[in-house]
Amino acid sequence: MIINYSFFGTAFAFVSQIQKMNLKENAIIFIVDDDPFWSSLLTQLLEELGYNNIVKFKNGRDCLNNIHFRPSLVFLDYQMNDMNGLDVLSQINRKYQDTNVVLCSAHENIGIAVNAMKNGAFDFIVKSKCSLNKLADLIAEMNENQKKKKKVF
Fold first, then answer.
1. Which of 6, 27, 72, 116 is most open to solvent, judged by the fewest CB atoms within 10 Å of its CB?
2. The pTM of the whole model exceeds 0.85
3. Do 104 and 80 touch, CB atoms closer than 8 A?
């Protein structure tokens, strides 16, 4: 059997690009925050990165009532009126441990960040320090971790 590697490589690259597009098109992202400015800013940044299936919730309870839709990523505010972000994170992890959660806060607090990571958050971001590049890097790192978890030996 003869395999034309140059053709195979080109076909593989094409399929890989299609898969990346489908991942962005199929990814469901939840933004859970009672601050409309932050929700809008984060939505705009995610859309610039090519993500369009974004669902916003103003509180943790609404997020938990819809977590069965299995979002690929949840941006979760730490301080909300109805529930603490760590409480919501804990409930998400009880049902769907493979859901990536990024805890967001307006305050830079190492204690909250450590608690978030210990309780299963993928990362912790300070809202004022979030940028398009940082968000892109965070999502790229998350995707790399997902690939490693799914690796079959």
1. 6
2. no
3. no
Tokens 């109805």 belong to 82
Count of residues in the chain: 153
116 close to 28: Cβ distance less than 8 angstroms: no
CA-CA-CA-CA dihedral for 122, 145, 29, 98, to nearest 10? -70
Please enumerate in sequence order all residues whose Cβ is within 8 A of that of 89, keeping only pairs 6 or more positions apart, or say none. 76, 101, 103, 116, 119, 120, 121
Amino acid symbol at 96: Y
DSSP code at position 97: T
Instruction: State the distance between the two ends of the chain, measured CA to CA, in whole angstroms.
Output: 26
- Per-residue model confidence as pLDDT tens for the chain (153 residues): 333 334 444 444 433 443 343 457 679 999 999 999 999 999 999 999 999 999 999 999 999 999 999 999 999 999 998 889 999 999 999 999 889 999 999 999 899 999 999 999 999 999 999 999 999 999 999 988 888 777 444
- Hey, which bits of the chain come out as E strands? 29-32, 54-57, 73-77, 100-105, 123-126
